[in-house]
Design goal:
Helices cover 41% and strands 21% of the residues. The chain has 14 helices and ten strands. Strands 1, 2, 3, 4, 5, 6, 7, 8, 9 and 10 form a ten-stranded mixed sheet that branches. The structure holds 3-hydroxy-3-methylglutaryl-coenzyme A (HMG) and NADPH dihydro-nicotinamide-adenine-dinucleotide phosphate (NDP). Pfam families: HMG-CoA_red. Belongs to the HMG-CoA reductase family.
Length: 405
């Protein structure tokens, strides 16, 4: 690619000959991106040289982005080693976290070193199922009842149709929900080592064809918002979505005092009044301090779908001053993670292995993605412990003044 190629391409857009989004039909993806940067810089006066200084071939991102201009760079750090005794994860793990929030990594790292010193975290994926819930229109509630009954009696027929579109996914169940003349069918899939949103959507569309041909239901929208993707929703908090994962640890009281500069009782009171009572009064769906910080930073660093952090924030943090130590847990009802699939854009993060191996070779199938979920849950637990400690020892603002400014 030469700059003159990009400039010439930009000229053709400016002259109205080409549309901005069709430049890859006329030049290689890197030149197309350069032409868009040229036009954007000209219009805005912005210096886009850093945006254009990316290290991967733009062609490798073609299934991840449209109208590409370049790449954004976010500082990435690492916390660990975090020992995780998981259902899938085992041993010590380093968790990369990408963020622009000063003090966050120091805090999570403090929680990690406290957990490590106490012998490590235990973690388990308690349920796994990626959901897609199309909405259908019917004549009336009598027909809605008829469609629901048909669906319940023909899950196997729907599974045949759905599973014909994938060589990995398995339909677990289909649950009908009715509101007047609307019927929602919440399909849940075992997506193995993939996060599975594309898989579930493609498979569900095939199943919808069967519902429309066999029942009086007419499909209105392939996603009826009861899935519920990228929106905080109680159905996910109760039923789970993606991986439902929990992590916990028991920290001797003296280690709480030595490493977190506070007491177990102070942490318990802060969690009760803040994460439980405060969240309840706020009408929050999640009862935690900042699990979204760790989920977002891990998703960014590991090429997950960053919009699905919405779900990761609906965690519940519990702490209890037991006789033999401070018991702490984080339960994340829906963590949508995967180790395989184009959506992860491995070129961006260099295929860092976290939890299980990168890719789809989990044995049993799905265990790589489960291990990733367990390590992220362990990181979220570390972040909860450290922030609760900082709040109860009154170090929050000083930490951010020192590290975040
Ligand atoms: C900042 C600290 C950790 C100091 O805490 P400290 O105890 O003074 O730190 P320390 O120097 O004694 O080191 C203790 C451990 O911290 C780690 N550590 C210490 N410094 C670093 C560093 N530079 N880089 C990496 N790791 C670091 C490190 O692990 C070290 O242990 P070691 O490994 O040496 O045995 C503490 O004051 C703290 O955690 N404060 C809380 C800050 C925080 O959690 N911020 C993020 C959340 S704020 C937010 O976005 C959410 C919020 C608050 O709005 C949500 C809500 O509403 O609640
Ligand atoms: N479509 C939508 O409505 C939405 C899509 N997304 C996007 O979806 C993407 C994630 O969806 P996802 O389906 O995971 O991604 P991909 O479609 O990118 O990849 C998943 C595919 O990888 C294949 N595969 C290969 N090996 C394995 C294995 N061991 N386990 C499981 N699958 C394997 C499967 O193909 P096969 O099925 O052919 O066997 C599977 O469908 C992200 O980019 C996200 O942003 C997010 C929200 C909504």
């Amino acid at each position: 690619m030469t700059d003159s190629d990009a400039t010439a391409l930009a000229e053709r857009v400016r002259d109205g000959e080409l549309r901005l989004y069709e430049l890859e039909d006329h030049a290689d993806p890197d030149t197309a991106a350069a032409a868009r940067r040229h036009l954007l810089a000209e219009e805005t006066g912005a210096d886009l040289s850093a945006v254009g200084d990316y290290t991967f071939d733009a062609a490798d991102a073609e299934s991840n982005i449209e109208n590409m201009v370049g790449a954004v760079q976010v500082p990435m750090g690492v916390v660990g080693p975090l020992p995780v005794d998981g259902g899938a994860a085992e041993g010590d793990h380093h968790l990369p976290l990408a963020t622009s929030e000063g003090a966050l990594l120091a805090s999570v790292n403090r929680g990690v070193s406290t957990i490590r010193n106490a012998g490590g975290a235990t973690a388990r994926v308690l349920k796994s199922g990626m959901t897609r819930a199309p909405v259908f229109r019917v004549e009336d509630v009598a027909k809605a009842g008829e469609v629901s009954a048909w669906v319940r009696e023909h899950v196997d027929v729907l599974a045949d149709a759905a599973e014909s579109t994938t060589s990995h996914g398995e339909l677990q169940d289909v649950t009908p929900y009715v509101v007047g003349d609307s019927v929602f069918l919440r399909f849940s899939y075992d997506t193995k080592d993939a996060m599975g949103m594309n898989m579930a959507t493609i498979a569900t569309e095939a199943a919808c064809d069967v519902v429309e041909s066999e029942t009086p239901a007419d499909l209105v929208a392939l996603s009826g918002n009861l899935c519920s993707d990228k929106k905080p929703a109680a159905i996910n908090a109760v039923e789970g979505r993606g991986r439902t994962v929990a992590a916990d640890v028991l920290i001797p009281h003296e280690q709480v005092e030595e490493r977190l500069d506070t007491t177990s009782d102070a942490i318990v009171e802060a969690n009760t009044r803040k994460n439980l009572v405060g969240s309840a009064k706020a009408g929050a769906l999640g009862f935690n301090a900042h699990t979204a910080n760790v989920v977002a930073a891990a998703f960014l660093a590991l090429g997950q779908d960053i919009a699905q952090v919405v779900e990761g924030n609906n965690a519940i943090t519990t702490v209890d001053a037991r006789e033999d130590g401070l018991y702490a847990s984080v339960t994340i009802p829906f963590l949508e993670v995967g180790n395989v699939g184009r959506g992860r854009f491995p070129e961006a993060f260099g295929g860092l292995e976290v939890g299980g191996d990168n890719g789809g070779g989990g044995d049993p199938a799905g265990s790589n993605a489960e291990a990733l979920g367990e390590v992220i849950a362990g990181g979220a637990l570390a972040g909860e412990l450290s922030l609760l400690a900082a709040l109860s020892s009154r170090h929050l603002s000083s930490a951010h003044a020192e590290l975040g400014r």
